[in-house]
Design goal:
By secondary structure, this protein is mainly alpha-helical. Helix content is about 75%, strand content about 0%. It binds protoporphyrin IX containing FE (HEM) and farnesyl diphosphate. Pathway: Porphyrin-containing compound metabolism; heme O biosynthesis; heme O from protoheme: step 1/1.
């Protein structure tokens, strides 16, 4: 008699036989901690660049805590809203909601608690402008992007990327209490970084998105067109990365570092387009994360060494 082999596969429904005990790890996972961690680095850089010398401690600490909580809440709402399609995709079927580790009601309560607490911290201990702008970013990601744009247009992540690009501006307003044009340059950098970051992954996961009818660019316009777009966006990003130098916000250390990073990203995107080797799309996706992290560390180092 043939042995039955159990293979881990995506679920077609979110039903689960497991008893629903409290699992803090599942709640932690819903906040997308690694994504939020990188966002917090960009928040911190926004805070540091906003003022000469040392950053005032109180808005820095409570700003980071409040923005982290509201970003985590936005991520948990994304898990909640996307639970059905997540359950059908190979990359996401193991998430807490489709796996039945967390119920929809508990996920909603968790997200709302985090959001309200984060908002109150920002409003009372930081300032109103940061609280409202962070709230707008939460709505932008959790509602506008996740509940509408994602299923509406292949430009979903370009438009929705604005919410994810906001953290340095939030950091800036947290310590100054006002909007400054320079913080917008950091937003523009993350905004132009998002398409190559995400589309590289979307090429690798094209079949997943096609299966659940989500119109990501590789599904609607094909892999080759998406690779061309990624390459063009890396050129656009290279220009965006020069803006802090052109306005005198950053100096030579940042100029050299960002130019090297831009050249490396363009090279990777060029390889993806023309070398046609397996695994290159994921390679570009992973590189994008190091690129953004190193770029913001370079902004920070430059600010304190040359500022
Ligand atoms: C709308 C804009 C964005 C989209 C659509 C997007 C999409 C994604 C997706 C689908 C993943 C894979 C997640 C997984 O496998 O669970 C991912 C990973 C990641 N993203 Fe983004 N992203 C966006 C913006 C950002 C921003 C603004 C940042 C940071 C500033 C960021 C940082 C990361 C990091 C660090 C990871 C790796 C997470 C891990 O290894 O668990 N992303 N992104
Ligand atoms: C308050 C504030 C700054 C909010 C921003 C919140 C936030 C965590 C944005 C992350 C962007 C992101 C990972 C998008 C992927 O969503 P997806 O649904 O396309 O990917 P998935 O399939 O992995 O869930």
């Amino acid at each position: 008699m043939a042995k039955s082999i159990q293979v881990a596969t995506p679920q077609t429904s979110n039903a689960s036989r497991q008893p629903m005990t409290f699992q803090w790890r599942a709640y932690y996972e819903m906040t997308k901690p690694k994504v939020v961690a990188l966002m917090l680095l960009t928040v911190l850089v926004g805070m540091c660049l906003a003022v000469p010398g040392s950053v005032p401690l109180r808005p820095m600490i409570f700003g980071l805590i409040g923005i982290a909580m509201m970003s985590g809440a936005a991520a948990a709402l994304n898990h909640l809203i996307d639970r059905r399609i997540d359950g059908q995709m190979a990359r996401t079927y193991n998430r807490p909601l489709p796996k039945g580790k967390v119920s929809a009601g508990h996920a909603l309560t968790f997200a709302l608690l985090l959001a309200v607490l984060g908002f109150v911290i920002l409003y009372t201990l930081v300032n109103a402008i940061t609280a409202w702008l962070t709230f707008a970013s939460l709505i932008g990601y959790a509602i506008v992007y996740t509940a509408y744009l994602k299923r509406a247009t292949p430009q979903n992540i370009v438009i929705g990327g604005l919410a994810g690009a906001m953290p340095p501006l939030l950091g800036w307003t947290a310590v100054t209490g006002e909007f400054h044009g320079h913080s917008l340059l950091l937003v523009i950098i993350i905004f132009t970084w998002t398409p190559p970051h995400f589309w590289a992954l979307a090429i690798h996961r094209k079949a997943d998105y096609a299966k659940v009818d989500v119109p990501m660019l590789p599904v609607t316009h094909g892999t080759e067109f998406t690779k061309t777009c990624i390459l063009l966006y890396t050129f656009l990003l290279a220009i965006a990365c020069l803006l802090p130098v052109l306005v005198g916000m950053s100096g030579p250390l940042y100029l050299v570092s960002s130019t090297l990073l831009s050249c490396a990203f363009i090279y990777k995107a060029w390889q993806l387009k023309y070398a046609d080797e397996p695994g290159l799309a994921m390679n570009v996706f992973k590189f994008s994360i190091y690129h953004l992290m190193l770029l913001f560390l370079a902004l920070l180092a430059d600010h304190y060494l040359w500022g």
